[in-house]
Amino acid sequence: MIAQEKKPIEEILGYLEGKKKVVVMGCGGCATFYHTGDTKAVNAMAETLTKEGKDVFKMPLPFSIQACDIEKSGVWLEKNRKELENRDAVLVLSCGDGVQVVTEYMDEKMEITKAVIPGNDALGLVGGGPKKFKETCQSCGMCELGKTAGICPLTSCGKGLMNGPCGGVREGDKCEIDEEKDCAWVKIYKRMEKLGEVEKFEQMLDPHEWSKMKRPRLFEIEEPIGMDVIGAMKGMMTVKFGPKPKLDE
Amino acid sequence: MGDEVYSDLMRELKTGKYVFTGELEPEKAGDVNEPIEMARELKGMVVACNVTDNPQSFAYVNSMAASYLIQKEAGMECVYQLRCSDRNRMALLSDVLGAGALGLKNVLALAGDHVSLGDTPDAKPVFDLDSTTLIKLIRTMVDEGKDLGGNEIHNPPKLHVGGAAAPGAAHLKAEVGKVKRKINVGVEYLQTQVVYYTDVLDKFFDELGKVDVPILVGIFPARTFGQADFFDKYVAGVDVPPDYLEAMKKTKEIKDKEKKKEEVDRVNIEFFTGFLEHLKGTPAAGCHMMAVGYPRIIPPLKKLME
């Protein structure tokens, strides 16, 4: 999931300066999980903006409808075309992916160009839960876990070293940069010890191939998951589907 | 590993002479006059001086430029420190080529402190390579005349590469594993982080076992209480003994400048007498005296090693 937190309201109000009529759009994916874009968050933001003198239209997305998944979120955009046309700005309470997918769809498919404003700061791909989450993978495109006892040094080492630990390991095997965090390379050493392969620790690992991370990365799948999945979930939700979004072939 | 010797430092290490090196720190300034002055004072006391590269991630004069000017103006051989924190593999490669072209003969390959610890904390940390892969890159450049991609280097640089070791690291086995990795890829000598405790040093040498690479042990005779206190508080993997810190703290109360200097020297000589006596009995090939801005302490400390 993409961890995220709400932006300070002062920053958001700065972006909305001079913009009276605002759409507040939510996200039923990660932002719902982190309470940064669920219906409650959309309502709270709408209330705050109304107090600030804005004319707000609320556009929450149901659970599992993610802003970044245009095949689904596009339905809500199409359904609310008129509101979008008449508004000065769209505040999207999602990660930056959701914000930009909405921007691009509105610009290119709906031909509605509006200021699209981020309501959240995305904090990375994380796992764990239910309360505590940890970033362990940075989607680098060239997974090194097979060489490092299943712990990613690029993400879990504060310096992202392929050959650690650095000289700064602190008391209790903590990281040089942050005493709250464990040194990834000591963890790798300890796992290799348990796995009976500590001799591997003395072998140099080649520099990481960053060529797999040429940004922006584009990705294609042969069989899109489609609306069927959502259809199957219909019984679980009170979702009213609107017009089909315009999608790329 | 090539047998060629390019530097006085390597010559002394190979001949088995007990080696002393010093340290110079370029600062946030538009010149390197002070380190040049210090290098002049250190001449004859040490075979070479490290020239720090943005130490503790404080951005200072480029260490290659400083090393070149110090060698040229003061005639002091330099160990050009090179950190991975601020440069990707391309920049590291071109810097090493530049160092060779400028006549630098020694590089100390370091990962470097994280940028968030220094005076430019919002900088993007690089760490494209680490100290081990940087050592590998330099050895490949010097010995094979190639870069990491196998591309040919015309007239390869002629320099030696050293690496760091941290005897006081919290997890010694992992640290030693990493040091052995550096040895496996051809590091030509090792220089330790500052050590104050003899038992820390002994445990490190025991864990490392016999290796063919000469090791210089880092010591830090502090010129002021502030320097010692900074090391204790902010330099990971270094514990400064409380007694030494206390004695240094007391020197702050002395008003007379000359008397204060004498007392600081006395505290250092008293503390390091035991440490250096112990050092003689270890496998260390020499001592890296990280006495930044404090050249007058080196002759009496060297005398203790005779």
Annotation keywords:
heterodimer, A: 249 residues, alpha/beta, Rossmann fold, 2 domains, four-stranded parallel beta sheet, three-stranded antiparallel beta sheet, 9 helices, 7 strands, elongated, B: 306 residues, TIM Barrel, eight-stranded parallel beta barrel, 11 helices, 8 strands
In short:
The complex is a heterodimer of chains A (249) and B (306). Chain A is of the alpha/beta class and 249 residues long.
3D structure, described in words:
The complex is a heterodimer of chains A (249) and B (306). Chain A folds into two domains: 2-125 and 224-236, 3-Layer(aba) Sandwich (Rossmann fold); 143-208, no CATH class. The model of chain A has no long low-confidence stretch (mean pLDDT 93). The radius of gyration of chain A is 22 Å and the shape is elongated. Chain A has helices at residues 9-15, 30-33, 39-51, 70-79, 81-86, 96-110, 153-156, 184-194, 228-233; strands spanning 2-6, 21-25, 55-59, 89-92, 115-118, 120-128, 133-135. With 249 residues, chain A is an alpha/beta fold. Chain A is 31% helix and 14% strand. The longest helix of chain A is centred in the middle third of the chain and has 15 residues, at 96-110. In chain A, 37% of the residues are buried. Chain A has nine helices and seven strands; from the N terminus they run E-H-E-H-H-E-H-H-E-H-E-E-E-H-H-H. Chain A has a four-stranded parallel beta sheet. A three-stranded antiparallel beta sheet of chain A has the order 1-6-7, with no helix packed on it. Chain B is of the alpha/beta class and 306 residues long. Chain B has a single domain, classed as Alpha-Beta Barrel (TIM Barrel), CATH 3.20.20. In chain B, 43% of the residues lie in helices and 14% in strands. Chain B has an eight-stranded parallel β-barrel, surrounded by six helices. In chain B, strand 6, helix 7 and strand 7 (215-219) form a beta-alpha-beta unit. In chain B, helix 2 packs across helix 3 and helix 9 packs antiparallel against helix 10. Chain B starts with 7 loop residues before the first helix and ends with a helix. The mean pLDDT of chain B is 96. The interface between A and B is medium-sized, with 32 and 35 residues.
